[in-house]
UniProtKB/TrEMBL annotation, chains A, B:
It holds the Pfam family F420_ligase. The keyword Cell division does not apply. Residues 13-212 form the Coenzyme F420:L-glutamate ligase-like domain. Keywords: GTP-binding, Ligase, Magnesium, Manganese, Metal-binding, Nucleotide-binding, Potassium. One of its GO terms (molecular function) is GTP binding. The keyword Manganese applies. This is Coenzyme F420:L-glutamate ligase-like domain-containing protein.
Length: 353, 353
């Protein structure tokens, strides 16, 4: 690897809707060369593309309401909330405070939204830079993001063109011959971070150029590929929101949950029983099903019922499904509970693999 | 802002326990100058400090068990788990897969732990570089971390010396006179990311130098300041873990939860009632207390009891506390539920501020 340089592009000035951002960049940086990575702050891309929303310039409920409406329109789903602050997933798949809607570095009568399609913005800028100056650069559109677990923000790539966004070391050997099995470096995010070191927040330096970075060119790529979503996302909700969701699941747990065919994980039923202070007998047990007989004081049947629901919530917390019939039997005054794996999950043991 | 350069330090070679890492760096980079930021991969710091654990070189259960023991010893608490993969918070406060315990770029008979105190490691390296070569540099100790919501890893700072870890723009004006109220840039993380662009994973280039970055010198600083923990951490648990915790709370919800004096948020009780399909009457309501009379079929009292617990879980999901007495009253065959704010929380309205 050789040295790289990160150079601020000064003199771009204010960017207004309809501006030819590529022309502003090539005029301010006539030294652009093939293989450079041009990192552009999303805010100037948004301004050039007219992604602006008018709002009352004076602080107050009307300004707040206009801002809330803008955030709502950019939000696909809320991830976490604290007081008036919302962390949301945007329509792009990005997880951001206030959906990336920003009041800084813009006239007080305007809000800036993120570009509608930052990868397309990056591709268009790249093509236009090539048309204007003949140089073949990669383009990264950056934005500032907070992170769980760590104080402070860093810049990351929300759009990219002409560069493979991830450098994948998986399957390759290290210097000791060990196979690297997890390392995928988000190089476009590291480029955005490096560029931020020369851009600053309060100065009008919205563009920086990284020279000397040997990247893999890509006609496709795009920062969209960095969005981790669906079952791969282990942090789809804030802790308070997920905990409330667990409580809601307990509140709405139906009597008749479909039971699957998977084998019950060793000890899981016992673990759930130990969580709840109530009397219960095991009537029968196989690898896939356990039938329980809840006990309790026959003079306090409502309490027995509440404890049955506690027990079923404990089973659910352990990843188990249960059904309850309250039909009293000869020997089972409060009915029986049947426990199995949730339908659609092969087995507890396999889930752990 | 002016240009900065990021330069790999080549020729350091293998680092062994007891090695004088500062000497290896100053020998390989005799061009080090005042104001440079030396970014050192944590792995070579750990190797020099002897933070190594022997383990059986052959794949198999013994190697896995030794690795698990090493992870356990580095773990303060488990944040999330998926199959055999654990994301944990280490004793340093860092949230990392496998507690940062690493098998790559080391002999197969050894595991590498993170440095015990990476800020102290950075400070010691900085002092020793100054003693050896007379130059005053900042030192960042970096490690590779995954991120929620985004594919791929980036390098971040786990230790730092001689540099303020965060650049704080809060309270300052932007070019439009808006006050920047949230921006705190984690500059040491951006420096680690920039350095990673020239270090690579598979090559033996564990050190890079950033020159030209105008940072705030700090005698204290330290990357420890970047750890966000406690109530500020909105993602203390994985979604599955927090949801299971909510179910466990429902399972263990006592009858007699202490009620606080805060005002109930408008509509919160109604919202919770709407979640559960059961009959319930409001006996009395004030700003701080609502008393409910659960209904139900008197011939199926256990079911009424289960529905009472469902309702209390729904109230808890809405952030409300409740007590239940199953003492039947004249008009209340299944007792009464009293709802309030949890003790210690001033009011629902204030919580939203």
């Amino acid at each position: 690897m050789s040295e790289l340089t990160v150079r601020p592009v000064t003199g771009i000035g204010d960017v207004t809707p309809g501006a030819d951002l590529a022309a502003l960049i090539t005029d301010a940086a006539p030294w652009l060369a093939d293989g450079d990575v041009v990192v552009v702050t999303s805010k100037v891309v948004s301004k050039a593309e007219g992604r602006l929303v008018p709002l009352p310039p004076e602080p107050g409920p009307e300004r707040d309401a206009a801002r809330d409406r803008a955030i709502d329109s950019e939000t696909a789903r809320v991830v976490a909330r604290r007081g008036p602050m919302r962390i949301v997933q945007t329509h792009h798949g990005l997880v951001l405070a206030a959906a990336g809607v920003d009041e800084s570095n813009v006239d007080r009568s305007l809000l800036v939204l993120l570009p509608a399609d930052p990868d397309a913005s990056a591709a268009a800028l790249r093509a236009r830079i090539r048309a204007l100056s003949g140089v073949d650069v990669a383009v990264v559109v950056s934005d500032t993001m907070g992170r769980p677990w760590r104080i402070g923000q860093t810049d990351v790539a929300i759009g990219a063109a002409g560069i493979e966004p991830v450098r994948d070391y998986r399957g390759g050997p290290d210097a000791y011959g060990n196979i690297l099995d997890v390392t995928q470096v988000a190089v476009v995010d590291e480029l955005a971070a490096a560029a931020d070191l020369v851009k600053g927040k309060a100065e009008q330096v919205p563009v920086a150029v990284v020279r000397g970075f040997r990247f893999t060119a890509s006609a496709e790529g795009g920062a969209r590929a960095l969005v981790r979503a669906g079952p791969e996302d282990m942090f789809a909700l804030g802790t308070a929101e997920a905990r409330a969701d667990g409580l809601r699941r307990a509140a709405t747990l139906p009597d008749d949950v479909p039971l699957g065919d998977g084998d019950l994980p060793q000890g899981a039923v016992e673990h759930a029983l130990s969580m709840v202070d109530t009397t219960v007998d095991v009537l029968s047990a196989s690898s896939r099903r356990v039938t329980l007989r809840p006990g309790g004081d026959p003079r306090r049947p409502a309490r027995a019922g509440a404890d049955i629901h506690r027990l079923r919530a404990a089973l659910a917390a352990a990843g188990l499904a249960s059904t309850w019939t309250d039909e009293p039997g000869a020997d089972a005054p409060f009915g029986t509970i049947t426990v199995g794996m949730p339908a659609g999950i092969a087995s507890g043991a396999e889930r752990r693999q």
